[in-house]
Amino acid sequence: MLLSLLAVAPMLAQPAQPAPIISPEVHADRTVTFRFRDPNAKEVLLSREGAQKSAMQKDEQGVWSITTDALDPDIYRYTFLADGVASIDPNNSLTTPNMLNTQSAFHVPGPASLVWEINDVPRGEVHRHFYRSSIVGDDRDFFVYTPPGYDPAAKKQYPVLYLFHGYSDFANAWTALGYANVILDNLIARGQAKPMIVVMPLGYGAPDFVTRNATGLRDPILRQRNYEKFRDALFTEVMPQVEKTYRVAKDRNSRAIAGLSMGGAESLYVGLNALDRFAWIASFSAGGASEDFAATFPSLDSSANAKLRLLWIACGIGDGQIASNRKFKDWLTSKDVKFTPVETPGGHTWLVWRRNLAELAPLLF
Amino acid sequence: MLLSLLAVAPMLAQPAQPAPIISPEVHADRTVTFRFRDPNAKEVLLSREGAQKSAMQKDEQGVWSITTDALDPDIYRYTFLADGVASIDPNNSLTTPNMLNTQSAFHVPGPASLVWEINDVPRGEVHRHFYRSSIVGDDRDFFVYTPPGYDPAAKKQYPVLYLFHGYSDFANAWTALGYANVILDNLIARGQAKPMIVVMPLGYGAPDFVTRNATGLRDPILRQRNYEKFRDALFTEVMPQVEKTYRVAKDRNSRAIAGLSMGGAESLYVGLNALDRFAWIASFSAGGASEDFAATFPSLDSSANAKLRLLWIACGIGDGQIASNRKFKDWLTSKDVKFTPVETPGGHTWLVWRRNLAELAPLLF
Hints:
Number of helices of chain A: 7
Largest interface: A-B, 92 and 92 residues
Number of strands of chain A: 18
Strand content of chain A: 25-35%
Oligomer: homodimer
Order of helices and strands of chain A: EEEEEEEEEEEEEHHEHEHEHEHEH
Helix content of chain A: 10-25%
Radius of gyration of chain A: 22 Å
Shape of chain A: globular
């Protein structure tokens, strides 16, 4: 009940600053200017997804800035490095959650044809579920996308895609960074993908797998427990809740499993060892698992071909995982297991994984 | 499909650092140690919710640290101020979203009796809806809490609380910072609150109301448009979607409206001018509206007493809004409008608003 800003200012809890800073500023020509006030820093670098680190220039007010070349329309993550100290952009409210590395992000708008652009189409919903996992021993969440027009009281049953995030992501990664709900909304509106339910669980089977110093992936026993308990939680906790709550078809032909990076390794490990449950299996930039494929997939052989509607293995050619993905595909070939190999431009980034999802979803069901 | 961490490291996009830092570290005695590596800073301050800024001490590795006194169990926000530059804690993945000021947060665990603690009780769900607002002219979202056991196919109808965030918050504030879903889960499990639906819309009627330099609140015309268009979007866009999608009772005795700060001003403005729609009205630390109460509530008089099941006006005595809240209560008294005045310890913070919700919810319906 106040007229003045002054009395409301305490809730902002921001230090008094000499002048407002606009950052990032996305220009009409798709160049982007970044600004960061830090008068005492000796050097400030812009660290941007898909680009080399670039030195920013300081003005007389102590504001560092840099303007990029024209960028392809997309969503990019970035941080500032001030004398080696990483920082999000304090003038940008768009941040990307991650257990090890919170970053800022910006959007270079593009044509409506880009699947991650929000268009004036019917929108689906994103549901967050919470439960105590007795398999893993923690309180956790999972997210469920329902397509536009989904009616929980109707008889129609939907196919379901189980979609996994990467190492150090939270369960919200596929919606917060991957725009999975926006991508599905657009593809469904265009008639390019079937209306489907997408289930996005928390991808860890060992609660201590992601630690501050990221030692989890170095420990093969912990890593194996992570994958096995993840599978057990998926089968005995997440899937039963989903099948009780949502109108999903329960036959293997109506179930797909996919994931990125660690989640790609999980989708292969879980899916290829459970062909009785899943007919559609995909991995994006799979990484972080053992290369002892015979031990990981002990019963996989050409008899899988009759069960698999799709085995889709994608990786960017600029991705550090490309060599191990090629090794895995060679092994599949040696076992006479058929698959669709997909090599794309790009590295180990969400720029690739959003496109992977947009390419995969139309192939499903 | 890799054994080594090295090949996975690029996705972390973190600069190489000499040694892992643990921050914050919440000790068993409820003291908390914060650490921040910044070898070149001349001064680093800890800015913590509910406390004075405190100077941190630098060690020979350039790591600044400070340990607090024992803190009451709660959830607190904080930032570091390095030579005046505000930063989240790069070693803490718990951040709090805000349009003007992203912060870090930490949790000092307390007994299960605290309503924001996650307990082993049935959990409700949080649903995120997306739509294009023709009233405001933007793409936006709203969140809906459904209580444990909610069955969209059942006949039972639930009462509904419309719950509004504050200035510069996103629509997710009441779940991300307010723990509204956890609080309701606990109160419902204890039998202290009736199972209810909680609807948390985006609280802006003018898309440019929150700007980088926070000029919105200074402009009375923009501010008024913000409140009016917010009400129009609530009545003609959000409420119809909610009443179509969820099993909510549609009579005024089953509808409550409440909010914090700007959202408190909105709940009073919308609710007291629409007693045909709402029988339960509450504000927490209401602020940011005109003090011309006669103009804001032109038809409010003692005839409201027969319609109001509750008018609950709460504010912390350490809050900058306390004076205007008292003025408003004096005005209500002068109009013979009955209300429940609630003055609590605390300032303009979520520490107060979580408790406000926990105190209000048992009074409703």
